[in-house]
Design brief:
With 224 residues, this protein is an alpha+beta fold. The protein contains 3 helices and 15 strands.
Amino acid sequence: MRTPLQLATVFVLTLFAALAAPPCLVAQEGAQEGWTPLFNGKDLDGWKFHLGREGAENDGTFTVKDGVLICSGRPAGYIYTPKSYSNYTLQFEFAFKRPEGLKSDAEFGGNSGCLIHIGDENALGVWPRSIEVQGMNRQLGLILPIPRNVKCTRTFDGQASAEMRKPVGEFNLVEIRVNGGDMDIKLNGTLVSTVGDCELTQGPIGFQSEGAETHWKNIRIRED
């Protein structure tokens, strides 16, 4: 029978081994949970681009630095997956670059967003037919059908969004759970918006370039 001192020693050694586990093991555990990275943290392999109404290719609008996907915000357009998805959970962290001299977050008008169920190009300006999960700092999580006549029901808890969003310059965790035409959107662990009975039920996933420098990391998906 082990003494209390022996049991304590075993516990400490086990804890130390867990904390010292190499990143590759953490990644393997994530894969075992069903998560697949959409962004490899090194380059833009596996992504497509539509920049401007003519759908120009990427020429510095989207870049990668230190494991972060960086968007300059110009020109307007989006980066998107070649693959179409329907039933899944999407997670990512994103932040705007905080402008020098910004005194109040209320003054910040930075804009971006995540596009779900991407369809026909240029359905509303440069934006494709889709459901936008708003990234604008003042309306983080608001649902915007593109174009506006796309049929769906939607809710938005503006108070929850305001309470949960991080200060400009800090990363927010967004989780979008999609089941065909139904969606739940969480901001830093709290439900802020929903979509129901949407006529769009599948399509690629995209992120917008919309005027402000925007950063994303840890973009991953778990298909159901």
